[in-house]
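Case study: AP-5 complex subunit mu-1.
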Amino acid sequence: MSVRALWIISHEKGEQSSIKFSRRFSTVEHRAKSLGGSSYVAVPEDNKVLQLLLTELGLSDSDKSYVALRDDCLYRQRSPALELRVDGQEKRVLWPVLAMLQGPLILACLPLVDAPPEPRPPLANLLSVSQGLTLLAGLHTFLLGSGSKPDNEGLASRLAMLPSVLLQVCPLGTPLDVPLLGTSATHTVHTPAGIQKQPAWKTGLHRGRAVVNVSVMETVRSMQYGNRSRQDLWDVYGTVTCKCEVEGVLPNVTVTLTLPPNGSPLQDILVHPCVTSLDSSILTASSVDNCDGSAFSGPYKFPFSPPLEPFRLCSYTSQVPVPPILGSYQLKEEENQLRVSVTLKLHESVKNSFEYCEAHLPFFNRDQIGVADVKVSSGQLDISKEKNLLVWALGQKFPKSREVTMEGKISFCGPTPGPTDPLCTDLTAYIKLYFRVLDMTLSGCCVDQHSVQVYSSAKPRIVTSRELQSKEYFIWNSTGTAPVSSGQMML
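Here is what the predicted structure looks like once written out:
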């Protein structure tokens, strides 16, 4: 996968958008011209790209409710791969332009599609799309951090570092890694390669104390309906992130993932390009196939030669038998009041030690909360009348019974209407859980310090960690009509 062009655009509210950084790769553009032939469309000037991109994203012509170039039914937007019609005609189209709008910045790139333009290949078949989005996500983390907004001087400093950073992570337009927050072009020492030939993509060597850090993070999603006619859904997505500060031009590291004896095999495994060899049985297990019990269940060994910066070694899914927290939610209308009944139970296989655990109960499309006579068996309850929201802070532990309850009545007689949302109408309501558990994963997947092998002149310090967190964890009101989950829940 290669990138024809890359743009970093400033999009502050109330200010005119402008391109803060752009980079075009002439060698990749030459390949695009050879592949495209008569259908080749050149990348226009930056100002033209900026205008077309803002139009396609709906960020220009705010005084016009209808813009033909964007809103005509013939030009249905296919996110995340946008079409930029260079001359307003369908025949001259730049595709796929990947755009990521985050905070004050728009990050966009045009990956090279190594396939005939017609018929247009499905997005799912294009590796360049997923790798391009990964590159943009890494650049966003490098420039702004995790959802933060640095001061103008900090952002300007990181923008000034981009040419050097791209030389390391995207030489000649081919992404090899992604920069993370704190990455600096001065963190590596440029030295002669020595006896072993240094690859062109590795522009520096690590000097100093050897440390290998391996982190396993699992994210669980769940849709619980409390209704026998509708099946509850949940899935688990795991990532293994490494940071290897090891001396040598091409040091060899092996990380081994293990499962408990009764653990479900890992599935849908994707690995970083730096992995040098892999058992084919590791890659064959897929969540769309029926698991017959013969799938490879580990240990999962990943030998690799690490890049200089933190990277995602692999990702996987796991089919666990039950979600970590089972819930029941019931609302009953009584005159101008709602009777609330909630039960949350922590599964016995889950470690009863949270970094945080909260349950949010929104009540949209009603008048503002007037009186809330609600009691909880454990934790603390915070009532936000302005947001029509109950925040139940469960703390760091469930009680010994591993079960907590909430009972009470809520009246809606505030002076102003509450917030509105199309997903919560009348008795259609939900609980959304937020939690994080350290030193455990739902699948049981872990990395033993003693299983990490490093072939280097200096003995490194090995640091391993694992954690479980929630994302889109919903418990729907069992007496209402909850939305049907669309498609698979795979992340």
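For the exam, be able to explain this: The radius of gyration is 26 Å.
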